[in-house]
Design brief:
The chain is built from 10 helices and 8 strands. It has 242 residues and is of the alpha/beta class. It folds into 2 domains: 158 residues, HAD superfamily/HAD-like (Rossmann fold); 70 residues. Bound molecules: magnesium ion (MG).
Protein backbone atom coordinates (compact mmCIF):
# COMPACT_ATOMS: atom_id res chain seq x y z
CA UNK A 1 0.00 0.00 0.00
CA UNK A 2 1.22 3.51 -0.82
CA UNK A 3 1.03 6.60 1.38
CA UNK A 4 -1.65 9.36 1.59
CA UNK A 5 0.67 11.95 0.01
CA UNK A 6 0.16 10.17 -3.32
CA UNK A 7 -3.27 11.79 -3.35
CA UNK A 8 -1.82 15.19 -2.45
CA UNK A 9 0.06 15.09 -5.77
CA UNK A 10 -3.28 14.98 -7.62
CA UNK A 11 -4.54 17.96 -5.61
CA UNK A 12 -1.40 19.90 -6.46
CA UNK A 13 -1.84 19.07 -10.14
CA UNK A 14 -5.37 20.51 -9.98
CA UNK A 15 -4.04 23.65 -8.31
CA UNK A 16 -1.36 24.18 -10.98
CA UNK A 17 -3.95 23.73 -13.73
CA UNK A 18 -6.20 26.32 -12.01
CA UNK A 19 -3.20 28.66 -11.80
CA UNK A 20 -2.62 28.25 -15.53
CA UNK A 21 0.75 26.56 -15.00
CA UNK A 22 1.79 23.24 -16.52
CA UNK A 23 2.16 20.63 -13.76
CA UNK A 24 5.12 18.29 -14.29
CA UNK A 25 5.58 14.90 -12.61
CA UNK A 26 8.84 12.97 -13.06
CA UNK A 27 8.88 9.18 -12.97
CA UNK A 28 11.92 6.93 -12.97
CA UNK A 29 11.35 3.52 -14.60
CA UNK A 30 13.50 0.67 -13.19
CA UNK A 31 12.46 -0.29 -9.66
CA UNK A 32 10.08 2.70 -9.63
CA UNK A 33 7.32 2.24 -12.24
CA UNK A 34 8.57 -1.25 -13.11
CA UNK A 35 9.70 -4.14 -10.97
CA UNK A 36 12.86 -5.65 -12.45
CA UNK A 37 12.44 -8.88 -10.46
CA UNK A 38 10.95 -10.88 -13.36
CA UNK A 39 13.75 -9.68 -15.67
CA UNK A 40 16.42 -10.79 -13.20
CA UNK A 41 14.69 -14.10 -12.59
CA UNK A 42 14.34 -14.82 -16.31
CA UNK A 43 18.06 -14.17 -16.83
CA UNK A 44 18.99 -16.37 -13.89
CA UNK A 45 16.83 -19.25 -15.16
CA UNK A 46 18.31 -19.07 -18.64
CA UNK A 47 21.80 -19.11 -17.19
CA UNK A 48 21.05 -21.98 -14.81
CA UNK A 49 19.45 -24.15 -17.53
CA UNK A 50 22.41 -23.54 -19.80
CA UNK A 51 25.10 -24.26 -17.19
CA UNK A 52 23.52 -26.81 -14.84
CA UNK A 53 25.63 -29.70 -16.16
CA UNK A 54 28.81 -27.76 -15.60
CA UNK A 55 27.64 -26.45 -12.22
CA UNK A 56 25.31 -28.98 -10.52
CA UNK A 57 24.82 -26.61 -7.55
CA UNK A 58 22.47 -24.64 -9.83
CA UNK A 59 19.94 -27.49 -9.93
CA UNK A 60 18.27 -26.89 -6.54
CA UNK A 61 18.38 -23.12 -7.09
CA UNK A 62 16.35 -23.48 -10.28
CA UNK A 63 13.52 -24.71 -8.05
CA UNK A 64 14.02 -22.59 -4.95
CA UNK A 65 14.91 -19.14 -6.28
CA UNK A 66 11.82 -16.95 -6.74
CA UNK A 67 11.24 -13.38 -7.81
CA UNK A 68 11.23 -12.13 -4.22
CA UNK A 69 14.86 -13.22 -3.90
CA UNK A 70 15.88 -10.84 -6.67
CA UNK A 71 17.72 -7.71 -5.62
CA UNK A 72 19.54 -4.94 -7.40
CA UNK A 73 21.68 -7.32 -9.41
CA UNK A 74 21.52 -11.04 -9.79
CA UNK A 75 24.97 -12.20 -8.69
CA UNK A 76 24.59 -10.56 -5.27
CA UNK A 77 21.12 -12.10 -4.93
CA UNK A 78 22.49 -15.56 -5.71
CA UNK A 79 25.39 -15.07 -3.33
CA UNK A 80 22.76 -14.34 -0.67
CA UNK A 81 21.11 -17.65 -1.61
CA UNK A 82 24.31 -19.49 -0.76
CA UNK A 83 26.21 -19.64 -4.07
CA UNK A 84 29.91 -19.33 -3.28
CA UNK A 85 31.66 -20.47 -6.45
CA UNK A 86 33.39 -17.25 -7.58
CA UNK A 87 33.98 -18.50 -11.14
CA UNK A 88 30.31 -19.30 -11.51
CA UNK A 89 29.32 -15.95 -9.98
CA UNK A 90 31.54 -13.98 -12.32
CA UNK A 91 30.17 -15.90 -15.33
CA UNK A 92 26.66 -15.16 -14.11
CA UNK A 93 27.53 -11.49 -13.76
CA UNK A 94 28.73 -11.36 -17.38
CA UNK A 95 25.69 -13.32 -18.62
CA UNK A 96 23.43 -10.93 -16.69
CA UNK A 97 25.00 -7.69 -17.93
CA UNK A 98 24.84 -8.88 -21.56
CA UNK A 99 21.05 -9.26 -21.21
CA UNK A 100 19.74 -6.96 -18.49
CA UNK A 101 20.31 -3.74 -20.47
CA UNK A 102 18.58 -4.84 -23.69
CA UNK A 103 15.32 -4.22 -25.55
CA UNK A 104 14.21 -7.85 -25.32
CA UNK A 105 14.65 -8.34 -21.61
CA UNK A 106 12.97 -5.14 -20.39
CA UNK A 107 9.75 -6.71 -21.68
CA UNK A 108 9.96 -9.20 -18.79
CA UNK A 109 9.31 -6.47 -16.21
CA UNK A 110 5.99 -6.02 -14.42
CA UNK A 111 4.58 -2.61 -13.57
CA UNK A 112 4.79 -1.79 -9.85
CA UNK A 113 1.50 -2.21 -7.94
CA UNK A 114 -0.85 0.69 -8.70
CA UNK A 115 1.65 2.36 -11.04
CA UNK A 116 -0.35 2.24 -14.28
CA UNK A 117 -3.50 3.59 -12.60
CA UNK A 118 -1.54 6.27 -10.81
CA UNK A 119 0.39 7.59 -13.83
CA UNK A 120 -2.84 7.52 -15.84
CA UNK A 121 -4.56 9.62 -13.15
CA UNK A 122 -1.65 12.08 -13.15
CA UNK A 123 -1.87 12.38 -16.93
CA UNK A 124 -5.67 12.68 -17.06
CA UNK A 125 -5.59 15.49 -14.49
CA UNK A 126 -3.45 17.50 -16.91
CA UNK A 127 0.13 16.91 -15.81
CA UNK A 128 3.06 16.39 -18.10
CA UNK A 129 4.33 12.88 -17.40
CA UNK A 130 8.12 12.98 -17.70
CA UNK A 131 9.59 9.47 -17.92
CA UNK A 132 13.24 9.77 -16.93
CA UNK A 133 15.37 6.66 -17.01
CA UNK A 134 18.97 5.55 -16.87
CA UNK A 135 18.18 3.03 -19.62
CA UNK A 136 20.28 4.00 -22.62
CA UNK A 137 19.42 5.00 -26.17
CA UNK A 138 21.00 2.66 -28.71
CA UNK A 139 19.90 -0.62 -27.15
CA UNK A 140 16.94 -0.12 -24.84
CA UNK A 141 14.71 2.52 -26.44
CA UNK A 142 12.45 0.23 -28.46
CA UNK A 143 11.97 -2.25 -25.63
CA UNK A 144 11.22 0.60 -23.25
CA UNK A 145 8.48 2.03 -25.44
CA UNK A 146 7.01 -1.44 -25.97
CA UNK A 147 7.14 -2.14 -22.23
CA UNK A 148 5.38 1.14 -21.39
CA UNK A 149 2.62 0.40 -23.91
CA UNK A 150 2.32 -3.28 -22.98
CA UNK A 151 1.80 -2.35 -19.34
CA UNK A 152 -0.74 0.34 -20.29
CA UNK A 153 1.14 3.46 -19.19
CA UNK A 154 0.12 6.66 -21.00
CA UNK A 155 2.37 7.11 -24.03
CA UNK A 156 2.14 8.57 -27.55
CA UNK A 157 -0.17 11.10 -25.97
CA UNK A 158 1.83 14.31 -26.42
CA UNK A 159 2.31 15.14 -22.75
CA UNK A 160 4.46 12.06 -22.14
CA UNK A 161 8.14 12.64 -23.00
CA UNK A 162 10.56 9.75 -22.53
CA UNK A 163 14.11 10.76 -21.71
CA UNK A 164 16.79 8.07 -21.93
CA UNK A 165 20.48 8.23 -21.15
CA UNK A 166 22.35 9.13 -24.36
CA UNK A 167 24.91 6.36 -23.94
CA UNK A 168 25.43 3.26 -21.84
CA UNK A 169 28.75 4.58 -20.53
CA UNK A 170 27.42 7.84 -19.05
CA UNK A 171 27.07 7.76 -15.25
CA UNK A 172 23.42 7.70 -14.15
CA UNK A 173 23.89 10.53 -11.70
CA UNK A 174 25.51 12.86 -14.29
CA UNK A 175 22.64 12.06 -16.63
CA UNK A 176 19.96 12.90 -14.07
CA UNK A 177 21.84 16.08 -13.20
CA UNK A 178 21.72 17.18 -16.86
CA UNK A 179 18.09 16.11 -17.16
CA UNK A 180 17.14 18.80 -14.63
CA UNK A 181 17.72 21.44 -17.34
CA UNK A 182 15.40 19.60 -19.73
CA UNK A 183 12.71 19.37 -17.06
CA UNK A 184 13.05 23.09 -16.32
CA UNK A 185 12.82 23.91 -20.03
CA UNK A 186 9.05 23.26 -19.94
CA UNK A 187 8.71 26.32 -17.66
CA UNK A 188 6.10 24.38 -15.73
CA UNK A 189 5.72 23.57 -12.05
CA UNK A 190 7.37 20.35 -10.91
CA UNK A 191 4.75 18.92 -8.58
CA UNK A 192 6.31 15.55 -7.71
CA UNK A 193 9.14 13.16 -8.53
CA UNK A 194 9.39 9.39 -8.03
CA UNK A 195 12.68 7.49 -7.70
CA UNK A 196 14.12 4.41 -6.06
CA UNK A 197 17.71 5.69 -5.82
CA UNK A 198 18.15 7.94 -2.77
CA UNK A 199 20.93 9.92 -4.50
CA UNK A 200 18.65 10.87 -7.37
CA UNK A 201 15.74 11.66 -5.05
CA UNK A 202 18.05 13.91 -3.01
CA UNK A 203 19.07 15.65 -6.22
CA UNK A 204 15.44 16.33 -7.17
CA UNK A 205 14.70 17.61 -3.68
CA UNK A 206 17.53 20.11 -4.00
CA UNK A 207 16.49 21.17 -7.50
CA UNK A 208 12.74 21.47 -6.82
CA UNK A 209 12.29 22.16 -3.11
CA UNK A 210 8.59 23.04 -3.47
CA UNK A 211 7.65 19.64 -4.92
CA UNK A 212 6.82 16.34 -3.21
CA UNK A 213 9.61 13.80 -3.66
CA UNK A 214 8.86 10.12 -3.29
CA UNK A 215 11.38 7.38 -2.64
CA UNK A 216 10.23 3.91 -3.67
CA UNK A 217 11.32 1.32 -1.14
CA UNK A 218 12.09 -1.36 -3.71
CA UNK A 219 15.78 -1.97 -4.34
CA UNK A 220 18.64 0.46 -4.75
CA UNK A 221 22.34 0.33 -5.58
CA UNK A 222 24.73 -1.03 -3.02
CA UNK A 223 26.57 2.29 -2.53
CA UNK A 224 23.40 4.35 -2.15
CA UNK A 225 23.48 7.75 -0.43
CA UNK A 226 21.54 8.43 2.77
CA UNK A 227 18.04 9.56 1.83
CA UNK A 228 17.15 13.10 2.96
CA UNK A 229 14.54 13.10 5.76
CA UNK A 230 12.12 15.14 3.60
CA UNK A 231 11.72 12.29 1.11
CA UNK A 232 8.35 10.53 1.22
CA UNK A 233 8.90 6.80 1.42
CA UNK A 234 6.38 4.53 -0.24
CA UNK A 235 6.25 0.83 -1.09
CA UNK A 236 4.18 1.30 -4.23
CA UNK A 237 1.59 3.49 -6.03
CA UNK A 238 -1.59 2.05 -4.52
CA UNK A 239 -3.51 5.04 -3.17
CA UNK A 240 -5.05 4.59 0.27
CA UNK A 241 -8.83 5.11 0.23
CA UNK A 242 -8.88 8.02 2.67
MG1 LIG B 1 15.47 3.28 -10.86
Amino acid sequence: MGIPQLREVLTRIDRAVEDGVLPVVVFDLDSTLFSTEPRNLQIFREFARERVEQYPELEPLLQSVKREHMGWNIHESLRAQGLENETLLSELKRFWSERFFTDDYVLCDDPSPGAVEYVTAVFERGALVYYLTGRHAGGMELGTVRALRKAGFPFWRGRTPLHLKPSFAMADRDFKDQALDEIRSFRGRVVATFENEPGNANLFLQAFPEALHFLLLTVCSTEAEEPAPELLKTLDFVMPLT
